Amino acid sequence: MNDQTALITGASSGIGFELARCFARDDYRVVLVARHAEDLQEAARLIRQEFGDVDVILLPFDLSHPDTPERIYAETDKRGLQIDALVNDAGFGETGYFADTDIDTELRMIQVNTASLVHLTKLYLRDMVERNAGRILQVGSVASFAPSPCQAVYAATKAFVLSFTEAVQHELKQQKSAVTMTILCPPPTDTNFFRTAHAENTRAAAHAASAREVAEEGYDALMDGAARSLPTLGAKVNFFSSLLLPDSMLATLMNTQLHAAEK
After folding, report:
1. What is the CATH number of the domain that holds 205?
2. What is the CA radius of gyration of the chain?
3. Fewer Cβ in 10 A, N or C end of the chain?
4. Cβ pair 175, 125 in contact under 8 A
5. CB proximity list for 114: less than 8 A, separation 6 or greater
6. Is residue 242 in some structural domain?
7. Structurally, how many domains does the chain consist of?
């Protein structure tokens, strides 16, 4: 039996839930973090139904509150849990012209997508570096690579995650640490993201990738200690386009994905 523990945020659905499945399949103890206790309970039920008597711990915490990362860390410490793998998956978006969108929603987005990710990484990475063992998966997006009109704040948060992750990856190499950090950059994926972001009827939503496929490719990259995972052909096309095209053209292309899907 695997005696290791993985903590996954945003674990009640979508990519986070599918990543939790991957860890449970490999006999990790899984600590699931999400806002709603009832959604976590359903996620735990499905995992136990599929994988048997796996150890599933539920932490219903809202990462839009600045003190939540400290509370999560204190809770795992109180329970004597050593976090061997951290997955920062929690995040959400908002669609619309920035002049028209709700600032309170966007400030919560910045807190969840970037501030909480940095804070949780700081807390658990220090322990991993001290042990010289551990893995961290940061969930970015293909939006990390280009400005995205009508999702300006969301894309900016994901660009931050990419830059932050690549910088810390370099630091870990300089320190000759065995700890690895991987960034997963999925394409538009079939999750609750589009409903939450008010983008259900867009072209991006109509051609979304499978959350399971994205999660499994990201999990394999994490286990291999890879720096980056670009799951599916769509993600690879987005990445290489970002290397070849100017930002103005990339912004136009990203914006077309948020237009209404053709019927």
Report:
1. 3.40.50.720
2. 18
3. C
4. no
5. 157, 160, 161, 164
6. yes
7. 1
**Any domain includes 263:** no
- Please report how the helices 232-244 and 211-224 are oriented relative to each other, as an axis angle in degrees rounded to 10: 70
- Fill in the amino acid letter for 12: S
Q: Is 17 part of any domain?
A: yes
Among 28, 73, 124, 154, the one annotated catalytic = 154
Neighbours of 54 (CB within 10 A): 19
- State the Cα–Cα distance between residues 43 and 1, nearest whole angstrom: 22
Contact criterion met (CB below 8 Å) for 90 and 16? yes
pLDDT at site 62: 97
Domain that holds residue 238: 5-256
Instruction: Report the 10 Å Cβ neighbour count for 74.
Output: 12
Nearest to 81 by CA among 3, 181, 1: 3
Contacts of 122 (CB under 8 A, 6+ apart): none
Compute mean pLDDT per 10 residues along the chain, 263 residues long, and list them. Answer: 90 95 97 96 96 94 98 98 98 92 97 98 98 97 87 95 98 98 86 57 60 94 95 71 70 66 48
Rounded CA-CA distance 181/233 in Å is 23
262 falls within a domain: no
Q: Are 89 and 10 in contact (CB under 8 A)?
A: yes
